[in-house]
């Protein structure tokens, strides 16, 4: 049975940004149309922790996805990064996804243990907390996306599609 996957992205937040790499990735996935019946998109979240978290949690409640993949831009990174955890309120929350097993299938992705102490980490923390506090069987993952270029987009797309395939059925 195919699992529903909610994918989120952020809007830009600095004047020099013409787009957000996380949203560029979702556009690419939507264009590609693979898994289209399973993918749900929540694009261009505000770059504010409370508003972004509220929108994602409302989407989780209404759409009931099996997997939530939040994406955010990391301008200083060169590869995709799967975030193992998020910090907030002097606590740390971890994804229930086995990242070591997942990473073995990927060629352009690493595991990160620092989600960045910005809106990305705030959103991830709130989503993980919500899922844990509601004893949900849903899983969540945060992917940091580097600036997308003509050179790296095939590698990024390939790894993200592999992530979606690995998590398509459970």
TrEMBL record:
Keywords: Hydrolase, Protease, Thiol protease. One of its GO terms (molecular function) is cysteine-type peptidase activity. InterPro entries: Peptidase_C15-like, Peptidase_C15-like_sf. One of its GO terms (biological process) is proteolysis. Coiled coil: none annotated. It comes from the Bacteria. It holds the Pfam family Peptidase_C15. Belongs to the peptidase C15 family. PANTHER family: PROTEASE FAMILY C15 PYROGLUTAMYL-PEPTIDASE I-RELATED (PTHR23402), PYROGLUTAMYL-PEPTIDASE I (PTHR23402:SF1). This is Peptidase C15. It comes from Aphanothece hegewaldii CCALA 016. The lineage of its organism: Bacteria, Bacillati, Cyanobacteriota, Cyanophyceae, Oscillatoriophycideae.
């Amino acid at each position: 049975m195919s699992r529903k996957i909610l994918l989120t992205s952020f809007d830009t937040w600095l004047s020099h940004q013409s787009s957000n790499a996380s949203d560029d990735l979702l556009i690419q996935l939507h264009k590609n149309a693979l898994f289209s019946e399973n993918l749900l998109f929540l694009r261009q979240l505000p770059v504010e922790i409370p508003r972004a978290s509220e929108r994602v949690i409302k989407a989780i409640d209404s759409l009931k996805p099996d997997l939530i993949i939040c994406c955010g831009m990391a301008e200083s990174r060169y590869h995709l990064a799967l975030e193992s955890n998020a910090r907030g309120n002097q606590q740390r929350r971890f994804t229930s996804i086995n990242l070591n097993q997942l990473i073995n299938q990927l060629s352009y992705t690493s595991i990160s243990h620092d989600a960045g102490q910005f809106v990305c980490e705030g959103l991830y923390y709130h989503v993980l907390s919500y899922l844990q506090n509601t004893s949900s069987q849903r899983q969540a993952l945060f992917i940091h996306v580097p600036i997308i270029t003509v050179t790296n987009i095939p590698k990024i797309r390939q790894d993200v599609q592999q992530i979606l395939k690995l998590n398509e059925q459970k």
